[in-house]
Amino acid sequence: MTAPDLLYQVKEGVAHFTINREKQRNTISVQALALFLKHLEEARADESVRVVCITGAGDRAFCAGADLGAGMASGDGLAAFQNYADLLKKLSGFSKPTVARVNGACVAGGTGFMLACDIVIAGSHASFGTPEVNVGLFPMMIGALIFRNVLRKKAMEMVLLGEKLTAQQALEMGLVTRVVPSEELDAEVDKVLKTLVQKSPIGMKIGKEAFYTAADLPFESALDLLAQKLATVAATQDAREGIMAFLEKRAPQFTGK
Q: What is the pLDDT of residues 141-175, one digit of tens each?
């Protein structure tokens, strides 16, 4: 039986998404898009899932973008591109923390998956770029995320030149959160995931929603919204538990309520 293009596994509070097309440099297929959307909804509804981690199979590529030779550029291309846009919407606004484990080349559409995540940890051997311009295309949907993470001039330089970037260059531009030696990637990602699993699910959910909403509001409106959301968080059981644990000098036991 052929393995699916996207693997999904829940383990110790983490929902692991692995693009499973190593021989194709983990290019994203129509099937992978559908599975991504399906499993994201499962992760959202699963109370045991506290964090999402996205990566690619093997150690050569995180995701090399769309599989242009397998339907993404055919007659149903518009539907596939819209599904990709829908996936970026769901991932960037996901209610639980999201971590990208960048284990190799991350280019084109893979950049969208990466930037839609809250935290991006890359191995030092990883490479980045938006080479669409080199084949007569343009990084359309991911542009919405690029311009929300990178200064406009650097973003335009990247998308117009289509050049490969090193992990260090990506870090300096703000594309990734941190870069670690490749042999330390798994340990670093595991450390971050274990830390996130211990946090309050309801606190992070309300906080993420508030931050993303506030980002598109005028300054004074943003402050008013955040004041309201702080009051909402402070009224949760987890907030009361966290404060009591702090006063009692013990680790909090968050339940997500």
A: 999 999 999 999 999 999 999 999 999 999 999 99
Identify whether the C-beta of residue 172 lies closer than 8 Å to the C-beta of residue 154.
no
Of 66, 65, 173, 58, residue with least CA distance to 123: 58
CA 42 to chain CA centroid, Å, is 16
CA distance 23 to 97: 29
DSSP string, 44-59: HH-TT--EEEEEESTT
Q: Which helix (H) or strand (E) holds 18?
A: strand 14-19
Residue 16 scores a pLDDT above 80? yes
Mean pLDDT score, 213-241: 94
In this structure, the answer to whether residues 130 and 241 fall within a common structural domain is no
What mean pLDDT is predicted for residues 233-250?
A: 92
Q: Is 34 helix (H, G, I), strand (E, B) or coil?
A: helix
Question: Are 144 and 118 in the same domain?
Answer: yes
C-beta of residue 8 within 8 angstroms of C-beta of residue 32: no
Q: Range of 55's domain?
A: 6-197
Helix pair angle (237-247, 201-214), 10° resolution: 110
pLDDT of residue 72: 52
Residue closest to 69 by CA, chosen among 3, 135, 146:
135
